[in-house]
Design brief:
This protein is mainly α and about 325 residues long. About 70% of the residues lie in helices and about 5% in strands. Helix 7 crosses helix 9 and helix 10 crosses helix 11. The longest helix has 29 residues.
């Protein structure tokens, strides 16, 4: 990478951080549109879950079950916080790790098979998670879990690093900064991962698994690793979403959400790490914009998506930069 390319990348990162952490909050403050904090927080969390789906695409697998892990992560956090009084900040990594463990148990047998079987299994995962939430006593069935406490303060050596969220005049602003911070860290980690040695092995799986296996690469292990990271991100996104909503129900994440997580990746660009972030933003606001068309909303939405996928197979980001395969 040349010095000019590094400078351009650093400038793009600085601009992104400026817009997300300074420009948008100032614009909301000036316009008094505090409702946008909740909307943009939702977009950020959906982008995190979509980033996990993108990683499974990166190894050549289609994941249509991320909604299951978002739902599971949300319930784990809700139960730990509401029933056992655990801090939200501790429940967050536990929710992600729980989802990663479940994905390993599921992935070990099916990720050794052809990709079509993996896709078929993930297609039913979200419905299985929903039915489990309806049946298990700990999830409170169809009534769900409500009145979930807001995240408490984080202190160190007697100093308050993060105040309790219920102490803010506008708690949704606190959730906004939490969500976009987690989104920024997630995609920074994904970018670092795909540019690491492990990421190069992931790319080799997508290109030719037989050749990678013949060179001594442990293909099943790498598949499970990628799927575990993907599910971890789904659990994290679901846990934060539940904290914002302060409630969770079996219908909080459905099959439609799992499909949308996948579409976010297609729309933004499968060849770009940051494709899911852009795809989530466009799909979320695009769907709301089409609401004005009434009964034709779904028809127009489907037609536009088909046209975009046909005209831009590498997603919206390919409009700006020449398409190239991820390293």
């Amino acid at each position: 990478m040349t010095r000019m390319q590094r400078s351009a990348r650093a400038a793009a990162v600085a601009l992104f951080l400026l817009i997300v952490f300074v420009v948008i909050p100032l614009a909301i403050y000036e316009t008094h549109r505090t409702d946008l904090y909740y909307t943009l927080s939702s977009v950020a969390l959906l982008a995190i879950a979509s980033g996990g789906v993108w990683l499974t695409f990166y190894i050549g697998r289609i994941n249509i079950g991320q909604g299951a892990y978002a739902l599971a992560g949300g319930y784990v956090s809700a139960v730990l916080v509401s029933t056992y009084g655990l801090s939200f900040w501790l429940s967050l990594p536990i929710a992600g790790l729980f989802c990663a463990l479940i994905s390993v148990l599921i992935g070990l047998p099916i990720l050794r098979l052809r990709g079509v079987y993996f896709s078929m299994v993930t297609l039913v995962l979200t419905e299985v998670a929903r039915l489990s939430a309806l049946a298990l006593p700990v999830t409170n069935g169809a009534k769900g879990i409500t009145s979930i406490p807001m995240p408490g303060a984080i202190g160190l050596l007697g100093l308050t690093i993060v105040p309790a969220f219920d102490s803010f005049a506008e708690p949704n602003a606190a959730f906004y900064f939490l969500s976009v911070t987690m989104m920024t860290l997630t995609f920074a980690a994904l970018w670092r991962l795909v540019n690491s040695r492990v990421g190069h092995l992931f790319a080799a799986l997508r290109q030719n698994e037989a050749l990678a296996s013949s060179m001594g690469v442990n293909v099943p292990l790498l598949r499970v690793l990628a799927y575990a990271i993907s599910s971890f991100l789904g659990g994290i996104g679901g846990a934060i979403f539940v904290a914002i909503a302060q409630s969770i129900y079996p219908s909080s994440f459905t099959v439609n959400d799992s499909v949308n997580f996948m579409l976010n990746c297609f729309l933004g660009g499968l060849s770009y790490v940051f494709g899911p972030m852009l795809g989530t933003l466009v799909l979320y606001f695009g769907w709301d914009l089409l609401f004005q068309t009434g009964q034709y909303q779904l028809l127009i939405y489907s037609g536009v998506m088909i046209l975009l996928i046909v005209a831009l197979p590498n997603g919206l980001l390919s409009l700006r930069w020449p398409s190239r395969k991820a390293p």
